[in-house]
Specification:
single chain; alpha/beta; seven-stranded parallel β-sheet; 3 helices; globular
Length: 219
């Protein structure tokens, strides 16, 4: 069983620990973050080690590392730590759930959650996160450092460039190009190409009043 270091102490790191441990290919041995972010000694009963000296305690030739950071700063924070981990000499792990349908190769530091579908003939780069029930259709290209929320749908022949965030339950039409650092909120439908650094969102549902006790939903 391969020994694994998890970078991060937030919810993404806790989830990574759960799934890696559940599926059994890796044995998580510790968490790591920069020293200034450490505010406890342990997480999930494993030690938290300062990243500045992680390679002196857990040797790169004996351990792999997975960078489990969410989409903060358009995934740039995860991108930086992914590159720093490689520079320390670590092999970078990836996670592909045994409950996913993944028919295309995925790059380093990718996270493929339960019930994700990645169709054949797609190209998946490095450091991408795909959460539950997201779909990457055939012949799509996903570059690096992207994040796909639950139930997001990328239709066929679409290119997603670097550092894109796709919110939950969003659908992207086929044959589009989503430029780098595009932020797409939850529940959107995109039918046109985007420009770099663009933001898309939907209005929240209309508030109808505090009247739920007056509504009859009986048969």
């Amino acid at each position: 069983m391969k020994k694994l270091i998890i970078f991060g102490t937030g919810i993404a790191a806790k989830l990574a620990h759960f799934y890696f441990k559940r599926d059994g290919e890796y044995l998580p041995v510790c968490f790591t973050v920069n020293r200034s972010y450490i505010n406890s000694e342990k997480l999930c009963n494993l030690p938290i080690i300062p990243f500045e000296r992680i390679d002196t305690i857990y040797k790169p030739d004996l351990h792999e590392i997975f960078v489990a950071i969410g989409p903060s700063s358009m995934n740039v924070n995860r991108e930086i730590k992914y590159k720093e981990s490689k520079s320390k000499g670590y092999k970078i792990a990836k996670y592909v759930s045994r409950f996913s349908l993944c028919y295309s190769e995925v790059g380093e530091n990718c996270f493929i959650a339960d019930n994700v579908t990645i169709n054949p003939f797609s190209k998946i780069g490095n450091n991408n996160f795909f959460w539950e029930y997201s779909l990457i259709s055939h012949d799509s290209v996903i570059n690096d450092n992207c994040y796909f929320g639950p139930r997001s749908i990328i239709s066929s022949y679409t290119q997603i460039k670097n550092n894109v965030i796709v919110g939950a339950s969003t659908t992207i039409k086929s044959r589009l190009t989503i430029e780098e650092k595009t932020l797409i909120g939850s529940g959107c439908y995109l039918s046109k190409n985007t420009s770099a650094n663009s933001v898309y969102g939907r209005n929240c549902s209309k508030f109808l009043g505090e009247i739920s006790n007056k509504i009859d939903i009986s048969d």
